[in-house]
Amino acid sequence: MANKGVTIYFVRHGETYLNYYGRMQGWSNAPLTDHGIEDVRRCGRGLNDVRFNAVYTSDLTRTQETASLILEENGQIGSLNMVQMPEFREVFFGSMEGMYGSEAYEKVRDYLGYDTKKEMFRNTDVAERMNAFRAVDPEGHAEDFMMFWSRVEKGLIKLIDKHRDTGETILVVAHGGTIRYILENLIPELRNPKGLLNASVSVARYEDGLYHLEKYNDVSHFTD
């Protein structure tokens, strides 16, 4: 007999001011822009036929604000508790938090020994660049890939252990890097996917021991 499975909706938070200014944003909190708020509301309206059984966010304000707006638009605000999970934070950039991304990646490019950032991005993966961020952080605070992933994986295991085979539909509002690596871990055929858009939806369904990707980086459901 087939089990009930579980369906997980992963939503990246809406655009923040640090996103808009092109600055590094890992553990730093920044409010959503007006454009970010409107995109999240459009996303929520597009999900108004989805009934969530549980809602999880990271403990950073941009994911909590995003989740509240989605629940408000799809009519479930007040009926569900949002559970904060620090495990689902974005990667920490240490002393480079808030730095212009162009400046921070110049440091990484120089450390990795490439002539141009375009060449660096073509020849390295996210994990290599994450490791380089830690190496070039003079304070030694930035997370490398294993520090980041071991933290995120603990949260993922908690989530799956609780909801696997319940037949439930779960909303997880988190960050671009966090969601991307969770899905790469769950979906073997997802290799080097594009970065996620703000307020985009990715859906993974677990059934009979396997994960199936139903949507990735989707904004087609946005309604005006």
Write the layout of secondary structure elements.
Elements: E1 6-12, H1 17-21, H2 34-46, E2 54-57, H3 61-73, E3 82-84, H4 101-112, H5 117-123, H6 126-136, H7 145-163, E4 169-174, H8 176-186, E5 201-207, E6 210-218
Parallel strand pairs: 1-4, 2-3, 2-4
Antiparallel strand pairs: 1-5, 5-6
Helix pairs in contact: 2-3, 4-6
Could you explain the architecture of this structure?
The protein is α/β, with parallel strands linked by helices and 224 residues long. The protein has 2 domains: 6-92 and 144-218, Phosphoglycerate mutase-like (Rossmann fold, 3-Layer(aba) Sandwich); 95-142, no CATH class. Helices cover 41% and strands 16% of the residues. It contains 8 helices and 6 strands. It has helices at residues 17-21, 34-46, 61-73, 101-112, 117-123, 126-136, 145-163, 176-186; strands at residues 6-12, 54-57, 82-84, 169-174, 201-207, 210-218. It has a 6-stranded mixed β-sheet with strand order 3-2-4-1-5-6. Helix 4 (101-112) crosses helix 6 (126-136). The longest helix has 19 residues, at 145-163. InterPro entries: His_Pase_superF_clade-1 (IPR013078), His_PPase_superfam (IPR029033), PGM_Phosphatase (IPR050275). The active site is at 13 (tele-phosphohistidine intermediate), 90 (proton donor/acceptor).
